[in-house]
Amino acid sequence: MSFQAYLDTIEDKTGRTPRELVAIAGEKGITADSKAGDVVTWLKEDYDLGRGHAMALWHVIKNGPGISSKHVGTTGTHRDASDTLWLDGKATRPSTA
């Protein structure tokens, strides 16, 4: 599953965009200096998300929307179309066609 696909699934399961969840994390005191386990616990308790999805959002909280370009344009399991993740919801994502 691509990194973006993880974020899209989080949106499907929670009804919130990744950007909204990052803002909620901040309101809960979860910042880039927090532990990943804090995000795992919060997302499990509030949204019943598993560790993989929590770690994807944790990466965004810690590092912002940029990801390593090593998987961009590849054919591997974790391939992504861009080295920048779209955080504002699937409905508003620009077409890559």
TrEMBL record:
InterPro entries: DUF4287 (IPR025629). Residues 68-97 are annotated as: Disordered. Pfam families: DUF4287. It comes from the Bacteria. This is DUF4287 domain-containing protein.
